[in-house]
Design brief:
By secondary structure, the protein is mostly helical. It has helices spanning 3-13, 18-27, 32-39. It has one domain. The chain is 58% helix and 0% strand.
């Protein structure tokens, strides 16, 4: 299972939030395209409002 598959599984299961995935992208462990595939939304250019 790839890292992308693991992150997708954790996100779908509710263990990970969008913000956690954003942090992984910013650290370079996941691409923006992977984020968009997992979340189904464009990668945010700015910090999301919490």
């Amino acid at each position: 299972m790839s890292k992308k598959d693991k992150y997708a599984k954790w996100y779908r299961s509710g263990f990970w939030s969008k913000q956690m995935l954003i942090n992984v992208v910013r650290k370079g462990a996941l691409t923006q395209e992977d984020y968009e595939d997992i979340v189904g939304e464009p990668f945010p250019e700015e910090e999301p409002e919490e």
